[in-house]
Write a structure and sequence with these properties.
This protein is α/β, with parallel strands linked by helices. The protein has ten helices and seven strands. The protein binds adenosine monophosphate (AMP), zinc ion and fe (iii) ion (2 copies).
């Protein structure tokens, strides 16, 4: 079983990378990709844990992108983590995420929601990528809500009046940067419903022309129709098809291995990559 989309506490997952690898072993996975939001920070710890436990690890990133205020998530497998353009884009996104999280919390506080910038910052590990789930964690810790989901339903969703956007590169630019870094770009959950709708076919075509390698077709946000449409699109554009859990630890229902990728597709990703090697036991 191969699961190519997971998060650790290097971004908004709840488990440190080593614990994530241990959970992957316990779940019976053969290979795992660590794809934290806008950071490679968890790679080294995950690689050490993988070597220790016999897990195959695919180092990756989930790169936040946006076009016309619409969010697009791009999975980047096996890029060179030192590539200057990639480093610059990720650094700018993380810095903007920090400012944006403060701005959201200040709006909430001004409106009487019992939360503070300090309480939210305390939920983010040193150097980790901050995100809305950290606001949710502060609200859970304060006993205001029971779990992350409830915080998203009440205050943190894309349509919330407290929502503030952050810097994110254009999706075509991100595909080019990931390729330049020797990585393999795959659109994450293209049919996840957001306030602004799914990722447009025209944009995926543009990304494909820029070097996109695949689509994450199997994902819990996709119904049967989405899977059908995306499978057809992947066929038409000659893109790889992946499936993954988007596991975040305890905060979300997603279970490791709930959707998977074939060994043939992982081999194809590995063949295309020149930036970083898969960690094998
Ligand atoms: P951000 O990156 O700060 O815009 O926050 C988006 C993150 O919040 C995504 O990675 C999701 O995994 C997470 N998220 C979105 N909706 C929910 C929800 N209902 N419950 C828990 N986490 C969520
Ligand atoms: Zn996340
Ligand atoms: Fe995502
Ligand atoms: Fe994700």
């Amino acid at each position: 079983m191969i699961d190519l989309h997971t998060h650790s506490s290097a971004s908004d997952g709840t488990q440190p990378p080593a614990a994530l690898v241990a959970a992957a072993v316990a779940a019976g996975l053969d290979a795992l990709a660590l794809t934290d939001h806008d950071t490679t920070r968890g790679w080294d710890e995950a690689a050490r844990a993988a070597r220790r436990t016999g897990m195959t690890l695919v180092p990756g990133i989930e790169v936040s992108c946006a076009r016309d205020h619409r969010s697009v998530h791009l999975l980047a497998y096996l890029p060179d983590p030192q590539h200057p353009d990639l480093l610059a884009e990720l650094g700018e996104a993380r810095a903007s995420r920090a400012t944006r999280l403060d701005a959201m919390v200040e709006r909430m506080e001004a409106d009487g929601v019992p939360v503070s910038v300090d309480a939210v910052r305390a939920e983010v590990e040193d150097g980790a990528t901050p995100g809305r789930p950290h606001i949710a964690d502060a609200l859970v810790r304060a006993g205001v809500v029971e779990h992350r989901d409830e915080a998203f339903d009440r205050w943190l969703g894309d349509a919330s009046p407290y929502y503030v956007a952050h810097y994110a590169p254009d999706p075509v630019r991100a595909v080019e940067v990931v390729r330049a870094a020797g990585g393999v770009p795959v659109v994450a959950h293209p049919h996840s419903r957001t306030r602004t709708g799914v990722v447009a076919v025209e944009l995926i075509e543009e990304m494909a022309a820029a070097g996109l390698a695949g689509l994450e077709v199997y994902h819990r946000d996709h119904d049967e129709r989405a899977v059908h449409e995306l499978t057809d699109l992947a066929g038409a554009l000659d893109l790889l098809v992946t499936g993954s859990s988007d596991y975040h630890g305890e905060g979300k229902l997603n279970r490791l291995g709930e959707y998977t990728t074939t060994p043939e597709v992982l081999a194809a990703i590995e063949d295309l990559a020149t930036g970083t090697r898969v960690v094998r036991p």
